[in-house]
Design a protein that fits this description.
Largest interface: A-B, 29 and 29 residues
Strand content of chain A: 15-25%
Oligomer: homodimer
Number of helices of chain A: 9
Number of strands of chain A: 10
Order of helices and strands of chain A: EHEHEHEHEHHEHEHHEEE
Radius of gyration of chain A: 19 Å
CATH class of the largest domain in chain A: Alpha Beta
Number of domains of chain A: 2
CATH topology of the largest domain in chain A: Rossmann fold
Helix content of chain A: 40-55%
């Protein structure tokens, strides 16, 4: 495995891979790698011959007062995990490498970025789209891999890729969870032990929503109310940032739950804001 | 020469060219090709083995009340001119091919796009950047060619290309002029004979600015005043849209003319808004 810190090194590595006829995968990450990332890497390795992982805590997707400084950084462990997993190239740029030239250009996606996390974090998705566009141009992969835990991010990246005709296939992989159901996230490291116990309430509240929808398809407002009550009781140290039931295609709020819906929430603990989501299709009930 | 109307056809042609080891050039145009475009094509042919010309009157770079409908369209003549000039591929998409998927994504460049034509045409450069990003992804050229008549556009495209790490070299070619000095433009076709006679005042006013700067480096405000008086007298049917003297690097207004400056103006006639510009470096005086 090679470690590249400059854009030129990445381009050289990828050029050689491509000249050898290899299909190139990119797994963009912010590091502090966990089993969710490993799942993306495994999927990428199954789909392509050459897997590049980028590790960059992108400052432009953090707002004022957010956790840019507190975001966990574990480059040595990340590097070892990538090596052990058979990654071909790790791209570990610094901020100057990524934004030294000026950074006047922004890529933004209307509508999809204005709800859920985008409403709570203004400018966040423009930061995400811009850095992903840069990484796409630096690595020029055939396929790029994103996690479903960040459903909205994946939807926005898909939209950006289609709208701007990037010659790249976007692959979205299922959320990986701890044994108690908590979605894997680098930010879980910033939970206190007590908060970690309470944090299971996020996925449990989503299970509650699924159960309610599969039983009786109640109006979205009723489900949201039930989830809020559950969260208040089970995760008293968490503050609900948003809790929405939306159309999975355009992320617009829905009132009814008789069609497929995405239930999504964000909960703030003292040093970590966690997100989770679940697709629920009442018509696909299997039980 | 081949004509492609779909993205898939373009990609197929470019893939074959690249497999044959060819360097790929893109000359993005809005058609109604003139000698300025031919100069871009000739330069592209000198620099690359495979030259693609796109012809697309991009609606998203026209504002309400602008000349989208009146913009000249001459596809048959354009096609013949490209063939005669040795172009390899003409990409002639319709609006649905370019924006049928949704078009929620925008690429924009801060600051550089907020002055000169950007102030007069809000949203114009976001439209330009977005369609150029799309064309870059569709054609994936090694080099792309733009004209210096659209100095601000070229500066913005350069900035976008660098900021987003497009693996593309931007080449800016000199403005081509009619024998009396009028800058070549598709919009010149929309001038009445009398307006055409008056339109020479744009380049003549730029020559006046150059002469003043080379003689005595007067303050920018004095030069602008002299140019306005010249235009009022020589082109009474034209209305000055803007007339600015700016730093060529960041397009910010300058007060002094002792360093290199860009003198740029736009003048509206009844059915055509014309632009022109000139780089003047008082220290590089050759006479």
């Amino acid at each position: 495995m090679n470690l590249a810190r400059t854009i030129e090194e990445v381009r050289q590595e990828v050029r050689e891979a491509r000249q050898a006829g290899k299909c190139v995968a990119l797994v963009p990450t912010m590091g502090a790698l966990h089993a969710g990332h490993m799942s993306l890497i495994d999927t990428a390795k199954g789909a392509c011959d050459f897997v590049a992982v980028s590790i960059f805590v992108n400052p432009t997707q953090f707002g004022p007062g957010e956790d840019l400084d507190a975001y966990p950084r574990t480059p040595e462990e990340d590097f070892a995990a990538c090596e052990e997993r058979g990654v071909d190239l790790v791209f570990l740029p610094d901020v100057k490498t990524m934004y030294g030239g000026g950074g006047l250009t922004t890529v933004s996606v209307a509508r999809l970025g204005e709800t859920l996390c985008g409403r709570a974090r203004p400018g966040h998705f423009a930061g995400v789209c811009t850095v992903v566009a840069k990484l796409f141009h630096i690595v020029q992969p055939d396929r790029a891999f994103f996690g479903a835990k960040d459903y909205q991010q994946a939807a926005i990246i898909r939209r950006m890729t289609a709208d701007l005709n990037f010659p790249i296939e976007i692959v979205v992989c299922p959320t990986v969870r701890e044994s108690d159901g908590l979605a894997m996230s680098s930010r879980n490291r910033n939970l206190s032990p007590e908060e970690r116990r309470q944090a299971v309430a996020l996925s449990q509240s989503l299970q509650l929503a699924r159960q309610l929808i599969e039983e009786s398809r109640p109006p979205a407002a009723e489900i949201i109310q039930a989830m809020k009550e559950y969260l208040a009781e089970t995760a008293p140290d968490g503050e609900v940032d948003y809790l929405q039931i939306v159309d999975p295609r355009d992320l617009s709020d829905v009132a009814a739950t008789d069609k497929p819906v995405l239930v999504a929430l964000a909960v703030k603990f003292s040093r970590a804001r966690l997100i989770d989501n679940m697709l629920v299709d009442s018509q696909a009930r299997t039980s």
